[in-house]
Design brief:
Mean pLDDT of chain B: 89
Shape of chain A: globular
Oligomer: heterodimer
Helix content of chain A: under 10%
Distance between the termini of chain B: 36 Å
Largest sheet of chain B: 7 strands, mixed
Helix content of chain B: under 10%
Structural class of chain A: mainly beta
Strand content of chain B: over 45%
Number of helices of chain A: 0
Structural class of chain B: mainly beta
Radius of gyration of chain B: 14 Å
Strand content of chain A: over 45%
C-alpha cells in the first residue's frame, strides 16, 4: 500500500541553521505531495504542496521538490527561526482520490534554539 | 473568518462513557474528516463524509460513530467500545473530493484532546 517515511526526530537546531527533513514515499500512480505543519496545541496547516514531478513547492522560506526518480519530497529551509519550532508532516494523495487516500508520515519534531 | 471549530478543546471521560466531539465548519466544504493523532505517530483516518447524510469508515473506525445531518457539522462519538480512546482528535474539511489535480488540500481544526480517567 501507499506509505510515507519521514526522518525520525526530534531535530534540534540553532537559529539561522540550515534545515532538511527527509521524506520518501511509496505509491502506485502519481501522487500529489504535501508538507503540513503543526504548532504546539494546534491543528495542522498546509505548508506547501507539489502535484507533479519536478514541481517545487515553497512557502515562508521552506521549499520541497517533487523527485520522482528518488520518490522523495525533502523539506528544506536555509535559515530557521525559533518560530519554526513545530511538528512537520509529509503526506501524499493520489490523482483519483479523495482524502481517503491522504496518507501521512509519522511527523518530525523540530526545535529551534535561540 | 472562515474555518473549522472543534469543541471542547479538552475533555475527560470515565471508562464506559460515550462522549461526542463537535466539529463545525463555515467554509462551505463538501467533505469532512476525523483523524486520530497519537504521540510519535502520523494521523490515522477514523471516518470521512463526502456529502450530507453519507459517510464512510476510515482505517480505525471501530469504537467510533459519526453523523452528517448538515453540511457544516460532522460530530464524532467515541463509544465505550473504543478500547484506547485517549488521544488528540482532529477534524478537517476540503472543498472537493475529486479535483482533477488530485491536490486535495485539507483545512484542519485546532483539535480536541480526550483523556480517559
Amino acid at each position: 500500500g501507499d506509505s510515507v517515511t519521514q526522518m525520525e526526530g526530534p531535530v534540534t537546531l540553532s537559529e539561522e541553521a540550515f534545515l532538511t527533513i527527509n521524506c520518501t514515499y511509496t505509491a502506485t500512480g502519481y501522487p500529489s505531495l504535501f508538507w503540513y505543519v503543526q504548532y504546539p496545541g494546534e491543528g495542522l496547516q498546509l505548508l506547501l504542496k507539489a502535484t507533479k514531478a519536478d514541481d517545487k513547492g515553497s512557502n515562508k522560506g521552506f521549499e520541497a521538490t517533487y523527485r520522482k526518480e528518488t520518490t522523495s519530497f525533502h523539506l528544506e529551509k536555509g535559515s530557521v527561526q525559533v518560530s519554526d519550532s513545530a511538528v512537520y508532516f509529509c503526506a501524499l494523495n493520489l490523482l483519483s482520490g479523495s482524502a481517503r487516500q491522504l496518507t501521512f508520515g509519522s511527523g518530525t519534531q523540530l526545535t529551534v534554539l535561540p | 473568518d472562515g474555518g473549522i471549530t472543534q469543541s471542547p478543546k479538552y475533555l475527560f471521560r470515565k471508562e464506559g462513557q460515550n462522549v461526542t466531539l463537535s466539529c463545525e465548519q463555515n467554509l462551505n466544504h463538501d467533505a469532512m474528516y476525523w483523524y486520530r493523532q497519537d504521540p510519535g505517530q502520523g494521523l490515522r483516518l477514523i471516518y470521512y463524509s463526502q456529502i450530507v447524510n453519507d459517510f464512510q469508515k476510515g482505517d480505525i473506525a471501530e469504537g467510533y460513530s459519526v453523523s452528517r445531518e448538515k453540511k457544516e457539522s460532522f460530530p464524532l462519538t467515541v463509544t465505550s467500545a473504543q478500547k484506547n480512546p485517549t488521544a488528540f482528535y482532529l477534524c478537517a474539511s476540503s472543498s472537493s473530493t475529486g479535483l482533477p489535480s488530485g491536490a486535495n488540500v485539507l483545512t484542519f481544526g485546532a483539535g480536541s484532546r480526550l483523556t480517559v480517567l
